[in-house]
Every structure is written in structure tokens, then in C-alpha cells.
Structure to design on (426 residues):
């Protein structure tokens, strides 16, 4: 017999069906709840609400599991490339050699950015945050490439164009912010190597491509590539549900990612570690502040809505810190502070009770710093990595025959009907 949930309301019993996912996760299907009972559900922050069914990413927060299309992220980080992972997320299966080669060609062919876009870049105020610029410029892409996106072939071109151009646009914004000449993408370089070259090559100091750093960047982006229905992905799906074009939906995702509780945490972690360093390395004060309920301070890079165990991505990122720093023969005092802070927090009763572990952002900034990426570009790096996930989720939602406009309800708590009072009588 199929499981059902019984709801008793005003003396009547209603049966609600259970939906079971391929990993055994269960949900109560309430899609007809209001129609049948007049009730809605209330769930601030959607902590108990599934917004869709999805075959892209599986997470088990209690066991610390993360898989893309069934493949553990650890295996992808070890054996795959970012581009192969992009293909996997968007198409659902790993590519054959020829398919991967074709994809690389498409990436090269679409890597240039319309020269007129530089005029926009040049005119942003110097202090603009790169995430604000990226969100605006991705939205602006639609005006430069207004082709229809409804034909399957054109969707693939749009998707490739977006993935390839975002990388060029991110490097371009960095160069322009420094007042340097833009470096164009090179057809002989792969995705991550090309990005590093566009960021750091200068006419006076050619950038030496280091394969270990290229691999580290690939892994960084693989680890960020998707994370099911998080804040920015839900923004992409919700905005996309109004049937806006892909660029506008992605632009909304970038804006959502910017927040310090979400993708902006990687920047916030480095700022927090720097404050601790300036405070003589007193990480214990940060822990005490994070526990103080009268202080809004939180330990950045700690805690997660879904993970109640160690974030599997953070484990890989932590190891990568040691590897990248050893390769570059540098030591970063912020890494030492981070490790001490982590050790002390994991032994602290508050963090144990609340199941607060380091998340991906705790160590990622240290890797990026070592590569020479400026702090205000960290969340842009996250956005480039998350782009294939947003696109795969957007594509899955628009291809869904049950596609519906996203439109949550509310429980109104304002004044009841009140008559208008003319201004002279108030
Ligand atoms: N430091 C101190 N206390 C914390 C922290 C933290 N980092 N995270 C959660 N708590 C406490 C919080 O104060 C609350 O306590 P109480 O119930 O007594 O009021 C309780 O834990 C639950 O917090 P919540 O915000 O309701 O729980 P959540 O599951 O929605 O939190 C989070 C998830 C990521 C917003 C939160 O852990 C946080 O703010 N972390 C710091 C920011 C951060 O690192 N964000 C990156 C997340 S990973 C990247 C991504 O995928 O976006």
C-alpha cells in the first residue's frame, strides 16, 4: 500500500500522497491542499519545502554527501575537468571524447565579448563591486545577442556563449578596474588556463601557466558547480518561471549569490580572518562573539542550511589550501588562523550543539588569495563556477511539462479593512 499522510482539519480527514525520490527522500505532496482544504502551509525560509523535483544534484546534509547526476563530487574533483562537469550537469551524462572536443571548440568560438561592452565597463564608478557589474553585464548580454532561445540548437549556443563569455567578462572587469589593457582569450588555452591568463598576463610580465594552479582552479569550479535548490538557484528558477530570457534569470542568480550569507561568504571569511589577525590573532574572541545572542556577528564560513555534518566540499578545499600554498612556496598567516579557529570551534559546545561545521567558503578564499585573485572578485569566482548549475536547473524547469509560474502565498497580518481618511481630517 502506498504511504499517505492524513490531515484532520475542522472535523474532516484529508489524505495527502507521499512522493519518494530515487534516494528514498520523502515529501508530502500538497499541490492540491488549498483547493481541497482552503489551507496553505507556512514555512519561512522554505526550510521544509521542496520547490521542485530535480534529477541534477543529490545532497544528504546529515551524511555530508554531494553528487552531480549521481557521481560523487570527490570523484569529479579528482578525475574530471570543469568543462566535462559542465557537460554532465547540463546534459545529464558524461560526454564522449568527441562531444567534449566539440564543446571546447564552441567555447573558443564564443569566448570573445562584443567590443561595445567595454564602453559599459569603462563607465561603472571605480568603486563598483564586481558582482554588481557582472549581474548588470550578464543582463546586458541579451541586448547584444538577442537571438531566440526557444529552438534546441540555439539554447545550446546561448548556454555555451554564456559560460564562455562570463569568464572573459569577469577577467575584463578586473583588468579595467586596474586601468590595464584587456587581455583577449587565447584559442590554444583551456577554460581555466585561459581565465588565469586573461586575469594576470601583462605586456611587461607574461603570465606563466602553471598546470597545478590550472588544476586547482578547475577543482574550485567543480566544487561550486551546483548545490540544488539554494538561494541563488531558487532565484534563477523563480525569476525564470515568469518566462524571462536566460540572461535575465542568471543575472538574478548572480545578485542573489552576492549576499554574505550565501556566496558572498567567501569574501566575508577573508575579511573576518583579517580582522582576527589585526586583533593579534585572537580567534577566541570571534568564537565568543559568534555565540553571543546579543551580537549579530556570525562565524563566517561556518554553518549550512542543509549540511549538519562536515561539508564534503570544504574537506577538499582545505586539502587544496595546503597543496596550492606548498606549490607556490608561500605561507599565509590567515590559513594558520583559519585552522586554529576551526579546531577551537569544532570542540566548542555551542558549535557542537548547533551542528556548525566549516562550509565551502571557509577555506576557498585562501586558495583564491594564493592564486592572486583580489578579495572583491571571490564571489565572482563562485558565480563562474555556479553558472552551469544555474543553467542546468533553469533548463530543467523550463523543460518540465508541469512548469508553473512561481508564486508563493502568504498569511496577511496587516490592518483589517480600514476606510480612507481625507488628509484634512487626519
Ligand atoms: N555562527 C554562529 N551561529 C550560527 C552560525 C554561525 N556561522 N550559523 C548558524 N548559527 C546559529 C544561529 O545564530 C541560529 O541560532 P538560534 O537558533 O539560537 O537563533 C541557529 O544557528 C540557526 O541559524 P539559521 O540562520 O536559522 O540557520 P540556517 O540553517 O538557515 O543557517 C546559514 C545557514 C548559512 C545562513 C548560517 O549558518 C550562516 O549565517 N553562516 C555564516 C554565513 C556563511 O558561511 N554562509 C555560506 C553558506 S555555504 C555557501 C553557500 O552555499 O551559500
Amino acid at each position: 500500500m502506498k504511504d499517505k499522510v492524513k490531515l484532520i482539519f475542522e472535523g474532516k480527514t484529508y489524505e495527502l500522497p507521499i512522493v519518494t525520490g530515487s534516494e528514498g527522500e520523502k515529501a508530502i505532496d500538497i499541490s492540491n491542499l488549498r483547493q481541497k482544504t482552503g489551507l496553505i502551509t507556512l514555512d519561512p525560509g522554505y526550510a521544509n519545502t521542496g520547490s521542485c523535483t530535480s534529477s541534477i544534484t543529490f545532497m544528504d546534509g546529515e551524511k555530508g554527501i554531494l553528487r552531480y547526476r549521481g557521481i560523487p563530487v570527490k570523484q569529479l574533483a579528482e578525475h574530471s575537468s570543469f568543462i566535462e562537469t559542465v557537460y554532465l550537469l547540463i546534459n545529464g551524462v558524461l560526454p564522449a571524447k568527441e562531444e567534449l572536443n566539440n564543446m571546447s571548440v564552441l567555447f573558443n568560438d564564443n569566448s570573445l565579448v562584443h567590443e561595445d561592452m567595454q564602453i559599459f565597463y569603462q563607465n561603472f564608478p571605480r568603486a563598483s563591486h564586481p558582482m554588481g557589474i557582472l549581474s548588470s553585464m550578464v543582463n546586458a548580454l541579451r541586448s547584444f545577442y538577442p537571438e531566440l532561445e526557444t529552438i534546441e540548437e540555439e539554447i545550446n549556443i546561448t548556454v555555451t556563449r554564456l559560460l564562455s563569455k562570463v569568464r572573459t567578462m569577469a577577467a575584463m572587469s578586473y583588468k579595467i578596474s586596474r586601468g590595464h589593457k584587456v587581455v583577449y582569450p587565447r584559442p590554444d588555452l583551456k577554460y581555466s588556463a585561459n581565465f588565469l591568463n586573461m586575469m594576470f598576463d601583462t605586456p611587461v610580465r607574461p603570465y606563466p601557466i602553471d598546470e597545478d594552479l590550472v588544476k586547482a582552479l578547475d577543482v574550485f569550479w567543480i566544487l561550486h558547480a551546483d548545490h540544488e535548490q539554494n538561494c541563488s538557484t531558487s532565484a534563477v528558477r523563480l525569476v525564470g518561471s515568469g518566462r524571462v530570457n536566460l540572461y535575465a534569470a542568471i543575472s538574478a542568480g548572480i545578485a542573489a549569490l552576492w549576499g554574505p550569507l550565501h556566496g558572498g561568504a567567501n569574501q566575508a571569511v577573508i575579511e573576518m580572518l583579517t580582522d582576527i589577525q589585526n586583533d593579534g590573532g585572537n580567534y577566541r574572541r570571534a568564537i565568543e562573539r559568534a555565540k553571543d545572542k546579543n551580537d549579530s556577528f556570525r562565524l563566517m564560513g561556518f554553518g549550512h542550511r542543509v549540511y549538519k555534518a562536515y561539508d564534503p566540499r570544504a574537506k577538499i578545499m582545505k586539502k587544496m589550501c595546503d597543496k596550492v600554498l606548498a606549490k607556490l612556496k608561500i605561507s599565509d598567516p590567515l590559513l594558520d588562523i583559519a585552522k586554529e579557529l576551526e579546531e577551537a570551534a569544532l570542540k566548542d559546545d555551542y558549535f557542537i550543539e548547533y551542528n556548525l561545521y566549516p562550509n565551502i567558503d571557509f577555506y576557498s578564499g585562501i586558495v583564491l588569495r594564493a592564486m592572486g585573485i583580489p578579495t572583491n572578485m571571490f564571489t565572482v569566482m563562485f558565480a563562474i563556477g555556479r553558472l552551469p548549475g544555474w543553467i542546468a536547473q533553469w533548463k530543467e524547469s523550463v523543460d518540465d511539462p508541469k512548469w508553473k509560474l512561481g508564486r508563493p502565498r502568504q498569511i496577511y497580518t496587516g490592518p483589517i479593512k480600514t476606510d480612507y481618511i481625507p488628509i484634512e481630517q487626519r
Notes: The beta strands are 4-9, 12-20, 26-28, 57-60, 65-68, 71-72.
